[in-house]
Amino acid sequence: MNKLVSILLLLTSICAISQNFEKNWTGYFSYVSIKSIAQGNDKIFAASENSVFTYDLSTKEIETISTINGLSGEQISTIYYSEDFRLLVIGYENGLIEIFSDRDDSVLTVVDILDKPTIPPDRKRINHFNEYNGKLYIAAQFGISIFDLASLEFGDSYFIGDQGERLNITQTTVLEPYVFAASTDGGIRVALVDNDNLIDFRQWSEIATGSFLGVQTLGNEVFAASPNNAVFRVDENGILGQVITFPETINGFTSTGETLTITTQSSVQSYIAGFTQQAQITNITDFEYALQFGFSYNNNFYLGTTNLGMLVVPFSGNSAEQILPDGPIRNDPFAIDASPGQLWAVFGDVDISFNPFPLSQKGISNLKNGSWKNIPFEELRNANDLVDVIINPQDTSVVYATSHQKGLLRIEGQTPSILYDETNSPLNIPGGNRDLGIRLYGMAFDRQGNLWFVQSRTNDALIKLSPTGQFEIIDISSIIDGEDELALSEIKISREGFVFFGAVRSGLVGYDPQSKKFNIIKDEIGQGNLPTNNIRSLAFDNQNRLWIGTLAGLRVLFNVSGFFEDDATVESQEIIILDDGVPQELLFQQSVTDIEVDGSNNKWLATATSGVFYVSSNGQETLLRFTKENSPLPSNTVQDIAIDDASGVVYFATPNGLVAYNGTATAAQETLESVYAFPNPVRPNFNGNVTIDKLTAGANVKITDLEGNLVFEQKSVGGSILWDTTAFGKYKVASGVYFILVTTEDLLETKVAKIMVIR
Q: b/e map of 327-362 (b: 16 or more CB within 10 Å)?
């Protein structure tokens, strides 16, 4: 009966080759926290939280492998490199396995364990890989699975508890004729490795009770590590004898067969046959570190740290070389902002009710001219839980970040200069409650260079900071009770200078600085028609329409100029689209976390669970849809979007990392001096759109053949338009040279460019 049950639970291989997205996407992942290290093919492989980098031992070159190359973006638990098959095997916390080929850089996704319904989600973690005779022994929270590296197929799965129960297998090792399995809840078990019936739990004998972190082979002996920091030798009779105890928790226990490496938080040591210590490191000059993993190879230690990437330390010394790909300080950006040539990211966090607890102390990252500058928390003047960041459009060297507990941080030239709080500004802690603190969130600049922002849990909630450093505090109690309101969220400013900000319970509030007048719309028909009063995001488009993202859907306010008129009924409107001919509300019941408007007046819409939607200027057409499943997005939770208007690059911040899409919509230019088309020439294998870039707003673009026949005409909204290389959508144009004739909206300037099409 037990054998039959085990057979029914066998895993059948379910694999798919992942797509490579390097052509249109860029990944900006952090590699400061290294969780696992492997070696092979004259390379060191180092796994961070959800991506991997390779370090070539001959050329010293570093390359990264991430979602851009086809990885999932999930949390990595362990990696292993097979020299015989030139395969890097990546195991994940959720049971997913991905196999990266060192021959062609392809990624094979294996979802057998991840998708197996008979294995509970909390028992799928991949703990360790061990290769023996072309078979990969996968130690997981449920037991052991076998994977054939030659055929890339799953074999048997072993549930080796006393009655066939699942055990959390931490590691396996083979010392012929036996295979050993260590577990946290079933001791150490052993079986004959060539036994064809290992799916029968009765073939496995328990030789040691208790909890074990791992079991490894060293020479002709087997060693095991326990959570109480002890290492044991397993003799030929299966009896354990303690050989050493460490003063710290063992974080890494790995063997190449000839060398056993044991890692604690502050030390690493390697042992050769006979458990003879080969080398030891307990202090590394010039680095303050905490270790997660250690690996010994060719008289060097390769150390995975929590915040310094990988350190390489020779056996003979204590000075280290840091190996760390360029990237941000963390992999969980919460808010981002971009201006031409740069991006800023902050890593604070709040939950769905805008609660910042538990408080976090995280740094800031700045991407400028292709390189990252990371500012640690220790330099942020104690500004914890930074939840928004904004670049001054009039001086892009000045940046502000809001703390949801400590105030407003000003950064000048990548140096934090001032933290505005209760000691040096009119900002105050409501009721003197230090736990509550100064809870700032959204920010926006008006056309005069004033910075507007909002503070929660107080009636002195709307704040203006002038370019000269003068504060103005505006009481909002005439429109909502700020002390009772759970939180204020986003803020945006219209062409007229009207200030709009969202609340979690109260809806959308507008303020006219000239008349000092407030107004509000809510979730009831006749009072605003919002899908909910919980406002999450706001954006003004190029037509001065206010797009409103809420916890439960999307709305657009078309008549912003009439928002403060007496007796006016102000209603927001749904965007209705046709889905297979059936009218549907765009993003119905979706939590819209951010809205950004590009140079073509199209909208990028971020959601909390469904990735990103790129829609036309009126929202009627979905131009692109990016999810974790069809793009390099490492998560379908997209927390923020930022657009570089000069390049058209669109950045996406997710809880699992930052990626960028090479968009084509750029901001309008002042003149036509720099108009150009790309790609040029259009080659036979090109199937995309031609971008005509560096246009002025409202420019008329005509494309003709050499005989003057018109094949395309369109008026620009922003700084670029797209041509699908057809004659008004009817047929692909023939090979030849085509003229691009551009005229400004006022007819005062013209520009002629050429493009060649090769079919």
A: bbbbbbbbbbbbbeebbbbbbbbbeeebebeeebeb
Query: What span, in angstroms and rounded, lies between the C-alpha atoms of 378 and 366?
Result: 16
Domains of the chain, residue spans: 329-475, 476-574, 595-665, 676-757
Structure confidence by residue, pLDDT tens digits, 458-496: 999 999 999 999 999 999 999 999 999 999 999 999 999
Joined together, the tokens standing for residue 715 give: 């008026």
Cβ atoms within 10 Å, residue 57:
16
Longest dimension (CA), the chain: 94
Q: What does the DSSP 8-state code read for residue 34?
A: -
**Mean pLDDT of the region 292-318:** 95
Structure tokens that stand for 209 in this block: 């009770």
- Burial degree of 687 (CB within 10 A; 0-12, 13-18, 19+): exposed
**Residue 13 confidence class, pLDDT cut points 50, 70, 90:** low
In this prediction the pTM is 0.91
What is 329-475's CATH number? Answer: 2.120.10.30
Kind of pairing, strands 720-723 and 690-693?
antiparallel
Residue of 443, 436, 437 lying closest to 410 (CA atoms): 443
Distance from the Cα of residue 226 to its chain's centroid: 34
The phi-psi region of residue 69 (left if phi > 0; otherwise alpha if psi is between -120 and 50; otherwise beta) is alpha
Query: Taking Cα atoms as reference points, which of 321, 319, 289 lies closest to residue 306?
Result: 289
Q: What's the pLDDT score for residue 509? A: 98
502 close to 538: Cβ distance less than 8 angstroms: yes
CATH number of 676-757: 2.60.40.3080
Q: What is the pLDDT of residues 395-434, one digit of tens each?
A: 999 999 999 999 999 999 999 999 999 999 999 999 889 8
CA distance 87 to 720: 43
Contact 719, 668 (CB under 8 A): yes
| Cβ partners under 8 Å of residue 668, min gap 6 | 599, 695, 696, 697, 716, 718, 719
* CA 445 – CA 501 distance, rounded (Å): 13
pLDDT-derived band of residue 12, with 50, 70 and 90 as boundaries?
very low
Buried/exposed code over 465-500 (b: 16+ C-beta within 10 A; e: otherwise): beeeeeeebbebeebbebeebebbbbbbbbeeebbb
Q: CB 232: neighbour CB atoms within 10 A?
A: 20
Give pLDDT tens digits for 191-243: 999 999 999 999 999 999 999 999 999 999 999 999 999 999 998 888 999 99
Give the pairing of strands 451-455 and 440-445.
antiparallel
End-to-end, the C-alpha distance of the chain in Å comes to: 66
Distance separating alpha carbons of residues 685 and 759, to the nearest angstrom: 8
Q: How many CB atoms lie within 10 A of CB 729?
A: 7
Residue written as token pair 């892009």: 396
For position 5, what pLDDT does the model report?
Answer: 37
Count each helix (H run) and each strand (E run) in the chain, helices first.
2, 65
